[in-house]
Design goal:
By secondary structure, the chain is mainly β. The chain has a single domain, classed as Single-stranded right-handed beta-helix, Pectin lyase-like (Pectate Lyase C-like). Helix content is 9%, strand content 49%. A hairpin with a 4-residue loop joins β11 and β12. The termini are far apart. It binds 2-acetamido-2-deoxy-beta-D-glucopyranose (NAG) (7 copies). One 2-acetamido-2-deoxy-beta-D-glucopyranose (NAG) binds next to loops. It comes from Lupinus albus.
Length: 399
Amino acid sequence: MQDQLVVAILIFCTASSSLWVGHGLSTFDVLHYGAKGNGLIDDSEAFLKAWNAACVVTGNTIPTILVPEGHTFKLQPTNFKGPCKSKNINFQLMGTILAPQKSEWKGDVKKWIVFSMVDGLSLYGSGLIDGQGFEWWNNTKKPIKEFDLSLGSVGLHIPTALRFNSCNDLNMNGVNHINGPGGHINVHECKNVTISGLNITSPGNSPNTDGIDISYSSQVEISNSFIGVGDDCIAIKGGCSHIKIHHIACGPGHGISIRSLKQNDKVEDVHVWNCSINGATNGARIKTWPLEGNGYARKISFEHITFINTTYPIIIDQNYGIKVKDEGGINVSDITYYDLKGTCAKDIAISLNCGTKYCSNITMNQINIISADPAKEATTLCNNVQGNFRNVIPKVTCS
Ligand SMILES: *[C@@H]1O[C@H](CO)[C@@H](O)[C@H](O)[C@H]1NC(C)=O
Ligand SMILES: *[C@@H]1O[C@H](CO)[C@@H](O)[C@H](O)[C@H]1NC(C)=O
Ligand SMILES: *[C@@H]1O[C@H](CO)[C@@H](O)[C@H](O)[C@H]1NC(C)=O
Ligand SMILES: *[C@@H]1O[C@H](CO)[C@@H](O)[C@H](O)[C@H]1NC(C)=O
Ligand SMILES: *[C@@H]1O[C@H](CO)[C@@H](O)[C@H](O)[C@H]1NC(C)=O
Ligand SMILES: *[C@@H]1O[C@H](CO)[C@@H](O)[C@H](O)[C@H]1NC(C)=O
Ligand SMILES: *[C@@H]1O[C@H](CO)[C@@H](O)[C@H](O)[C@H]1NC(C)=O
């Protein structure tokens, strides 16, 4: 009896979606592809079936995968692969997608939900992506310090919750993210990306839970979002250009970072404005490795930013990562800080710690940062910086 009902529903849906196809609409509800949505059973296969059906839709319709409200879908690591036949594809997330616990994890331990080579993807809705990171967090204390020189990165084996690989013309709006095992969102090798209206939340002491990481991507705009996590709110890594970040409330976390750039990493044209950083360990941060190369971080601006009790509101660190003799590092130049104000949690408001002769054209204007503790006076630190400092409180004196 129940089977007949399911068959009837399937026939109805297949018929109705093919009816809609001609009219520019087609919805692929994961429940119609066998997902249970009870938070217990692995629904990955049903999600892939819905995806595969949507991905082959041709014509002028925009296929929409629907993850309906009122259900919790547990997914093992899943890769939604493109390219799809249609120019655009929608993924409407209204319900909850739940990660397996670490102990029940199957397959790839570096990724969880992946979209790869999907152009024109729009992921939106008021739903939730819950990474259930607890078991990962208290087992990851050791690997954090294991820097892998050949990879130029930290050798972590922790899943990123949501990863976009080579997805051009990507749009993401409104989704909630909590408790990522590692980072929450990773945008890698994507061009033309718009992200807005997100709420990303993990405890301030959860390790490696970056909000949004961007690497080898260009024309990325992130706005109007709340990000409170245990690592960087937003991290811009090597190979990025034309990045806009604005109207972000960040904290707790490690701030908005141009991050861990190694020898040949290049980052340029990053503009951050109208953001607030509350109770984070860093605010506006640029950190690079002390190894010589032809990489650079240049044409970066931070404007109209408010700090609330932030440990290092403004920081450039060219000796990040590994402890080696200062080989100079990569060039950091054309960096503008304008209208940044608020309070710092410890005594250093501005820390510019550059390697020998590699920070040039650093401009500050209208900076006013005081200590959150009225009994303390905020100070600054500046090594090897060539720049122009006007109306900066506390005063920056460079050696
Ligand atoms: C690790 O996480 C588990 C699951 O949340 C928890 O029960 C356990 O107490 C944690 N262990 C430590 C050492 O924090
Ligand atoms: C960028 O992507 C959006 C879809 O998110 C699309 O509407 C727009 O045309 C794309 N812009 C360019 C310059 O390709
Ligand atoms: C973001 O989500 C968290 C946890 O779900 C919630 O406590 C918080 O109020 C939300 N913040 C905003 C600004 O929506
Ligand atoms: C950005 O912040 C500045 C200073 O607070 C304000 O004057 C300006 O209107 C803001 N811009 C936008 C687009 O919100
Ligand atoms: C780094 O900057 C120095 C001084 O401005 C310049 O001479 C050098 O060519 C730059 N190196 C690279 C790789 O851009
Ligand atoms: C310094 O950087 C600013 C901002 O990127 C740029 O407009 C200006 O041309 C640079 N000055 C020099 C001398 O390169
Ligand atoms: C600032 O943050 C520190 C923790 O970093 C906390 O101990 C202190 O109470 C906070 N101060 C204010 C004024 O909020």
